[in-house]
Amino acid sequence: MTESNGHNKRVMIIGAGIAGMQAALDIAGSGYQVVLVDRLPSIGGHMHQLSETFPTLDCAQCIMTPRTVDVGRHPNIQLHVYSEVEEIHGEMGDFRVRILHKAAYVNWELCTACGACTEKCPQAVPVAFDRHLEMPRVLRTGKMRHQGTGKAIYTLSPQAVPKKPVIDVEHCTYFQKGKCRLCEKVCPVGAIDFEQEPSVSEERVGAIILATGYELYPLEDLGEYGGGQVPDVIDALAMERLLSASGPTAGVMRRPSDGREPKEVVWIQCAGSRDPELGMPYCSKICCMYSAKQAMLYKHKVHGGQAYVFYIDIRSAGKRYEEFIQRSMEEDQVLYVRGKVSKVFRENDKVMVWGVDTLTGLPTEVAADLVVISPAMIASEGTRQLATMLGLEVDTHGWWVEQEDNLSPLETSRPGIFLAGAGIGPKDIPEAVSQGSGAAGKVLSLFSRWGGPPDTAE
Amino acid sequence: MKVSYFPGCTLNTTGKGFDRAVRASAAAVGLELVELPEWNCCGATFPLIVDNMLELAAPAHVLVAARDEGGSGLVTTACTTCYNVLQRTNLFVREHEEERDRINDFIEAEYEGEVQVKDIVHLLRDDIGFDAVQERVQKPLEGLKVAAYYGCMVLRPPDEVAYDDPDHPQSLDDLMAALGATPVDFPHKNECCGAYLAVREPEVTREMVYVILRSAKAAGAEALVTNCPLCQFNLDQQQTRIRNSHAGYQSVPVFYFSQLMGLALGLDATDYGWSRHYVDARPLLRERGFWNETPDAENGA
Amino acid sequence: MRVRLTAETVHSELVHRVEEYSGQDLMACYQCGKCAAGCPVAFAMDMLPSQVIRYAQLGLVDKLLESKTIWLCAACQTCYTRCPKGIDLSRIMEALREIVMYEQGSHMDYDGLSLEEMSEWPQQAVIGGFRKYAV
């Protein structure tokens, strides 16, 4: 390895969501080597699950794929997907990172991404990418059966980068019961490898960017909203999948219980956010905007439907955000009911929503066909462990702690380790992307100060 | 297992039949209830004014009796309202030193919250075990579609009193299943029945009760069961009014949990308070063969 | 006529008494309405449970002392259980009842009660009712 004064001018970016990808492209574009790690089988993070983005209603995959393809192809970006960071030693200029590469049970060198394995796999599985939705399918016999929207051998989406499948061991018939192996039979290049082992590699980098992103608070922990037990009560990302043209219903509005088109849809805001009693006193920032967006998209698909948003306040502080909210009311007749919902329960084939309109002082209820919960944003799983590994802090809620809130929002207490994106706290896409570039700038500034040519792996 | 027992004023008077059922059923499953030799009414509501020491004196006095005369360090009750008051008082005394001193001064005792208060269904679930109850069932209540109604007192505030999920409780449902019945889940099992509002606002209580009964019936219940005598009274008595104000309403019997326990355990249920029901529960029981026929079956108590 | 809000009225003696008796910080309530949405008696009230706090925040406690709402609270604790700020509204209701009863005496029509009615009710209903509505 070539080193300039013990300063390794390579960067590792942990998390390949939009913030991580932006940072990767900025740094790689400047001629330096990037090692980009993500735990999922393909890059793009949560944005890849979205239908359209606010406030422009751009198709998320359409604006993202040029970026993901760039990242996937870039000569200066070494991509490690389906991988996790296990250990980190060293200091700025010389970090030594051990990475675990999980077993995909598919030889990606041989795989041509033809998709035959996924198509032929007989095991329908509820998948995390579709928020474990189980949709009704009418069989040839006429009976209705609920099943997951993915398969045991899968790629996350049709536009996945890299577009290489992995096998979900927990749901694969071969791994669970020793039978099947149909994917192996249909693979034209013999890429299926049930004996594949996880592997480990070590990378040496001079700087690290943490772009670990977020998750949504689970519906199971919101007892008064059904506790995850009512099929037609879904979370915001599940709604994105139902709205998405590349989603499980090809963008046709169908509800999970019986596949019918919902005529009355309720959005419940602040489910967990702004709730000190539940341990999340913060506002999750993006939900007012995304619920308006989802309500509009719903109305564009179901012209005769009614959308209700039960809110406490509407927070629309970004550029053109307020105009977007007003548009949802004026053009798409979304009814905003000011009052936090107390209880949601099933009654026959409806989901009853018990709320209140504080503005008129009337207790209200809606017999909804579909209820979309806007749960609190929480830090990605594993953030705390990563923090311990790095000797860094996360706050009580699991968000990365910045060096200084106001003037050093992308630095940590350790030199050479920077932050970007929703892992620091709830934020929207433009902010995450800006922070990706910001963190990249910090790294490039370091590399520039160190002087000399970029470093390669070996 | 031997535990101190606090009957509470209602189970000692209008609910005496339920109390007899509690004692007999408990004994039949190996839970020996030893009534506190001296006790007073718990006060029926937990005082919500922060410095209402006087209203705390009564339940505190019960807790002192439980400590001094109980012996086991554990006191149980079969009325969820009593459980709520005693439990909340106990926690309050443990956590507030200054107020504790004032109460102790007044009741002339030195109580620091040494006793543990446990609702009887909690005991049956965790200490006796519903499996053990099921083993002793002689006449399973097969096919009885009964909706377990919990009310408020045993669930809220959850961090003080709940031993079950406050939004989707299961303990009473599971007890019913152990007795061979078919528990019917319904969304309003934890919705308030009105409690003491019955005294001043009977029409309001009627509507609150209607929400609960309608929901239970819509879920397929042919009867309800509860473990608070005031809830039992409201759900039962209000049906007379509901029949007049909601056209087509069909009444359903409302059991006290100990009545069903006694029946399923094959005990003599004659004096378990049947004549005090507004909606007579006996026809349904007889029809299904759950009624334990004895010479005095007609009279009830 | 406008309601005039002043430093004195917003932090009046009555407001202090409500806060003192209930032990609750009235300004902590951000008026989300979840208490009102879940209150099983809200349908019968003349103002929403959440509006009880709102009037108190504005210093308009007199209006509350005249309301029917405070007498309809069943102390079911649903509001307290679900409030994201952990405010015990049932305590505020009781504080207001106490303030009224200190001035005006018991809020029960004892003479209107028949012995027959009383003997039907479970003991705890009588005791609970008397505790909430009598001084």
Write up what this structure looks like:
The complex is a heterotrimer of chains A (458), B (301) and C (135). With 458 residues, chain A is an alpha/beta fold. Chain A folds into three domains: 10-99 and 198-213 and 380-450, FAD/NAD(P)-binding domain (3-Layer(bba) Sandwich), CATH 3.50.50; 116-186, no CATH class; 218-376, FAD/NAD(P)-binding domain. Chain A has helices at residues 18-29, 60-73, 116-120, 173-177, 182-186, 236-243, 287-301, 321-330, 383-390, 429-450, and strands at 10-14, 33-37, 52-53, 58-59, 77-80, 83-91, 94-101, 124-125, 134-138, 144-148, 150-151, 153-154, 166-167, 199-205, 207-210, 214-216, 233-235, 264-271, 306-311, 335-338, 343-347, 350-357, 362-368, 370-375, 377-379, 417-419. In chain A, the strands form nine sheets. A five-stranded parallel β-sheet of chain A has the order 5-2-1-15-26. Chain A has a five-stranded parallel β-sheet with strand order 17-24-18-19-20. In chain A, strand 1 (10-14), helix 1 and strand 2 form a beta-alpha-beta unit. The longest helix of chain A is centred in the C-terminal third of the chain and has 22 residues, at 429-450. Chain A is globular and about 70 Å long. In chain B, the strands form two sheets. Chain B has a four-stranded parallel β-sheet with strand order 2-1-3-4, sandwiched between helices. In chain B, strand 7 (223-226), helix 11 (229-245) and strand 8 (254-256) form a beta-alpha-beta unit. Chain B is globular and about 55 Å long. Mean pLDDT of chain B is 94; it is low at 295-301. With 135 residues, chain C is mostly helical. Chain C has helices at residues 7-10, 13-22, 34-38, 49-57, 61-65, 69-72, 78-82, 89-104, 115-120, 123-133. Helices cover 56% and strands 0% of the residues of chain C. Chain B binds chain C through residues 8-10, 12-15, 41, 43-51, 55, 79, 81-82, 152, 156-158, 166, 191-192, 194-201, 204, 207-208, 211, 229-230, 233, 237, and chain C through 20-23, 40-41, 43-44, 71-72, 74-78, 80-81, 88, 90-91, 93-95, 98, 108, 120-129, 131-133.
